[in-house]
Every structure is written in C-alpha cells, then in structure tokens.
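User: Here's a chain of 300 residues. Predict its fold as tokens.
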Amino acid sequence: MDDATRSAMVKVLLGQQDVLYHYCSTNTFQQIISNRTIRLSALTLSNDALEGKLVSAVIKRLAQANKVEPWRIERLMERVDMLENLFDGLGLCLSEAGDLLSQWRGYADDAHGFSIGFSRSYLQWLGQIKADLPLPGFGIHKVLYKDEEHESELRPSYDEMMKSVEAGALQAGLVTLLGGPRSEEAAAMEKTAADQLSRTILMLFFKWFLLKSDAFSEEREVRLISYFFRSDADAGVRYRATRNCIIPYREFALQEQERNPIVEVYIGPKQRTPVKEIEYFLASNGFGNVNVMRSAAPYR
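Assistant: Prediction complete.
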C-alpha cells in the first residue's frame, strides 16, 4: 500500500477527510508537538509586503471604477487606512496541499522540516471553545487570490460605504465654501452618515487578512486568524524575538488530544529522521493515530 492510499484510509477511518497542513522547520515541529500548542503570530510581519494592504487597494479601485470624485476617494481612504493603526491580525498559515515543493522550500527550512496535517473539524472546534472564554479565539478563513474574488468579497462593504458618502458622511464638520456652517438639520444628518460610515469601515477588519496577491495562489492557503486591538493591554498577547523582529502572538493549547488534532505528518525531502522515530515522538506526546510518511517531492 503506497503512502497516498494509506493517508486516504486513515482520514476515512478517523472521519477527518478535510486536512489542513502547516509547513514548518524541525525546531518548530518539535515545539508544537512537545508543548502541544500552536502559535498565531502577527500577519503584518509575514513575508508578504502586501499583507493587510489589499483591502484598501480594492476599495480604492472600486471607487475609481465608479468615477467617485478624487477628493472623496482621498478622504475615504484616509479613514480606511486608519484601521491598520487600530488592530492587528494574528494567524497560523495552513495549506490545503500537504506535499507541495514550493511550500517545502519557502516555509519548511528549505525542505528540512515537516508538514503537519491538522484536522479542520478539530481546529473549528478549538477556535469556537476558545471564543467562549474571556480572551479571543480564532476563526478559519480561506484566502482569496483573484481580483474578481477580492472585489466580490468587498463589494457589499463598499456599497454600504458609498451610501454613507452620498448621505454626506465625508462632509460632517465641514463648512460650506460661501455660506459658513451648515444648518443644524444638515449637520445632524451628516453626523449620522459619518457614524454609519465609521461602523462599516470598522467591520472591514474582519476581511483585512483574507486577500493575497495571485502570485501566491499555488499555496492554497487557509488561515487561523485571531484579532486584537493594539490599545488592549489585556489581550492575551505575548511576544517572541527573531533575528530582526519582535513578533506578537497568541498561543492555543491542543487540548483533548483524543479528538485527534493531528491526522498526518509529512517528513520533508531533506529531513533525515526515520518514519518510525517520528511516530514514536508523536505517540510519546499523546498524538496517536497519526499517519507519518515521507514527502514525494523530488528535491534533495
């Protein structure tokens, strides 16, 4: 029986056919398994320079396509861009593909590491039970890559923003060029529209980290995302250091291991540890029923 057939059978037997893979270095793999935890780290500090920037770009593109006046676009974008200073998204990046060469090279220490296959149903359960606690949990979100997907995702929010703009949201607090302050009634209507615009813009943060450039589409990424406001000092956020960065993160325990949080593990093309040794390591840390196999990627 080959590894692919064995993998499919294990998933069926465990009732977990939907698996999401996290590519990581040997050191990170050892920490996840030994500590029985996962870390969701700041997405704005990832390797994608456009991370958290595309929502703003798409809103601007939609406004320009609708021939909205330039001054309105400028004022609208000032408000949208303020979101970046208010909150951040903490994420764990996963893939629907468990043995992909580009992922091995980019995210698993040039193929020396591992690809951990997590049960999607387990992650959904874990994120939900954590959300019921005082500190935030996380959600599971599929990343969108195509321009048309980006616009479709943001169109409802954009349309709501335009309703507020047309109702005078961007004129609140201004004076007319010749007539001085607006009437009290007009000012009240504009204030109401401005408040609604602020609420609509604030809700964009739920979409802030769902969009990526089509250049990354091969990754087939799915993310665990947990949000936090930068002003919240008690947000359950810790910090870790890399060579050139201090990175905020939240840590989540992989509790109730009998639910089989990890379904399978791929050993990287350049990883030397024998399959049996990885099986023993997993079992000794409470992760049973895990299918361990070597990558089929021809990369040495």
